[in-house]
Amino acid sequence: MQTTPPVALVTGASSGIGRAAALALVDAGFAVAGTSRNAASAEPLAGVTFLDLDVAGDESVRALVEEVIERFGRIDVLVNNAGVGAVGAGEESSIDQAKEVFDINVFGLMRMTNAVLPHMRAQGSGRVVNVSSVLGLIPAPFMAVYAAAKHAVEGYSESVDHELREHGVRMLLIEPAYTSTSFEASSQAPDSPLPIYAAQRAVSRDVLATAVRNADDPDVVAKVIVAAATDAKPRLRYTAGSMARRVSILRRIAPSRAFDKQIRKLNRLAD
Fold first, then answer.
1. Do 18 and 10 form a contact (C-beta atoms < 8 A)?
2. What is the pLDDT of residue 189?
3. How does pLDDT run across 186-238, given as a tens digit for each residue?
4. How far is CA 38 from the centre of its chain?
5. Does the chain have fewer CB atoms within 10 Å around its N or its C terminus?
6. Which domains does the chain have, with CATH numbers?
7. CA atoms within 13 A of residue 184's CA, in its CB half-sphere
8. Is 146 an annotated catalytic residue?
């Protein structure tokens, strides 16, 4: 029987959802390693050990996972939270910019997963909890690259979960809607902006800013992450917040034409 506290590794733990998740996992009895691109400048959190990590770097990921195992002896839960936002029409983002978003939001998640799985399989247990989004389930006009990355996370996670179950490991998805963080302010602007999209891009920025102002607190998402990390019989998908639950249900049951019309209305797009 395990007598030491279970160990959780949370990427992007210095702010937003990652910070709230790290604190919630501490409260749930976990020893927590949190990562930041610059751990020395991260605000200290009681019970959280901050370590440097660049999820876009193979060597950084390898070294980080080795250090966590050396310090804590094990990794029971990996929370893949680190990510970057991107706004603008799909045509306005260069392939290089899209690659940068995917390198963090998708390939970074894969790097971290591949780094911890040998350890989890060897110990016969573990959970990889991926912070996705309802934008991995629905279209997101003027956030096409970001939505594409989250759709990729959804497909990857569900597929790999089937591969891991026989080894005592699960891969689970957290699907929040908009959350009250700095997401809108820190999202990448398109690197190849086109005048034809300028007016609607500004409208979409306003839609996003309004949604974030009225969004759920990160603590709402953090509670769901703890549930995914600790439930005796975990579900593949966990929606976080009432809006996320409504969107998920509507995506499944609403007629496609009605759903399409609602997407355009919410994003203030002409019929």
1. yes
2. 94
3. 899 999 999 999 999 999 999 999 998 889 999 999 999 999 999 999 999 99
4. 19
5. N
6. 7-266 (3.40.50.720)
7. 17
8. yes
